[in-house]
Amino acid sequence: MVNRRRFIRVAVSDDEDEASRPRRTRKRLRLFEEEEDDDNDNKNEEQQLQKKEEVPESLQPAEDATPIGKPIRFSGKGKGKRSHYESFMFNGIEYTLEDSVLFFPEGKGQKPYAAIIKDIKQGSNGNVIVTGQWFYRPEEAEKKGGGNWELHDTRELFYSFHRDDVPAEAIMHKCVVHFAPIHKQLPKRKDHPGFIVQKVYDSVGKKLWRLGDKVYEDTKQREIDVLIHKTLQRIGELPRIEFVETTDDAHDQMKSKRV
């Protein structure tokens, strides 16, 4: 069964009989600015990240999400009719299709969820809903045989083709995600802060694949190729590396031997 990410429904007016908006329960996720020099530095950074993610006092979103411009298409009929948009505004920030964003987590002590916005739609009640294509953190991605994958880098995320509809008001803010094939040098934190994706997680089969593995159907492979191309356009060509497998799992290859 697919592991779904659950969110509270968002009411856009006081007279709607729905649950209240998701409350702001976390600080914005800040990425490290410094490159680790040794194991002690890495430990210190992990402690700093944990401190930065402490839960502050709850804050309410300042406004409702509102679509920008005219619909680019329509779907459904009658009460189920939906207008689809290219972008929307929320708390003074414009969000557009294909933006990478962080969402508020379900519970206290959890890390924010990361996703790419794949659809923006508004129903007859005025609620703005986004379709998120999810990233998974290694420690939350389940293995088929049980357990989770080991975290090798605090920036690491797994890409997936799992999608869910989420209230737009559940968004925290935008984030940067770099897609780097397994044979490429990872961009330095100091020069290019952001998350790193080198592998794709099958949330149904609970398997892991490298970005360079040509195991997907054509449409999905093109999707991955476009994301890699966008990364290289943004940060430039990445040097090649040699890597060695560190586990019996042929697809768990984040630890690499640098050249």
Question: What can you tell me about this protein's structure?
Answer:
This protein has 259 residues and is α+β, with helices and mostly antiparallel strands. The chain has one domain: Bromo adjacent homology (BAH) domain (SH3 type barrels, Roll). It is 12% helix and 27% strand. The chain is built from two helices and 13 strands. The strands form two sheets. Strands 2, 3, 6, 7, 8, 9, 10, 11, 12 and 13 form a ten-stranded mixed sheet that branches. A three-stranded antiparallel sheet has the order 1-4-5, with no helix packed on it. The chain is globular. 24% of the residues are buried. The C terminus is likely disordered.
Computed over alpha carbons, the radius of gyration is 19 Å
Proportion of residues in extended strands? 25-35%
Number of domains: 1
Largest sheet: 10 strands, mixed
User: Architecture in CATH?
Assistant: Roll
Between the first and last Cα atoms, what is the distance in angstroms? 41 Å
What is the number of E strands? 13
CATH superfamily caption: Bromo adjacent homology (BAH) domain
CATH topology: SH3 type barrels
**Helix/strand/pairing class, anyone?**
alpha+beta
Helix percent band: 10-25%
Point out poorly predicted stretches.
6-43, 48-59, 246-259
Number of helices: 2
* Broad CATH class: Mainly Beta
